[in-house]
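Per reviewer request, we include the raw input and output of the structure prediction for the construct analysed in the revised manuscript.
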Amino acid sequence: MDPEKNIKNTQSIKGETQNTQNDKCQRKVNIITIDGPAGSGKSTVSKLLARELGLRYIDTGAMYRAITLVALENGIDLQDEKAILEAAKRKKLEVDLRANDENEYTQVKIDGRDVSLDIRSKEVGEAVSIVSRLSGIRRYLVELQREMAQGGNAILEGRDTGSVVCPDAILKIFLTASIDERVKRREKQNISKGQIMNREEIKKEIINRDRIDSTREDSPLVVPENGIVIDTTNMSIREVVEEIKDRYLERINAKD
């Protein structure tokens, strides 16, 4: 894939991946990775940082949700890796790389249809951990994510961006928070989006997602090597953003 395409606001991907970066992103490129479990604050923080630092924002979680939606809409068994992969490769996936509003979901299109809200449904939320633990799906999307990150100047947000997708990023952050704080944040987010779930349902979903993400064989949720762990439980969003920004500028200045 032509690196110049990454300058555009939206990246379109379809079919087979290229083999330009089979193993890693370019070494020490201008990339920040932000990983962590659900409700740790990574989406809001990543979008604010991307906008304030002038970097592209790559929402890797939205890509797994999009593939999950494809499987659900086509009635494919969520364990059928081959069928899901074949269906996904026939689709044109477009992911908006702008971080315009931290309170809005990343815009995602499948074959030109806006599915930004569809991929955030309860059904997709319950199924995405099943699909995302399939090794073939992870390998396919990791390759796409590396292509999108070519040339650097990006923030990647997800669960394995620092450990697998771009292990040579200039700064690798792992956000965490107490389970009660994460449930409170997710509940607030759901209400703001008109998605009503009671607190116990949210807690059960988060705990289940944590278990699946942390124990899957391929690309489990872990703190990346040389990653910096930030517990955001008692921190404001602005405090987290400023801490990461300071660390990033230190790395950039040291590199120069």
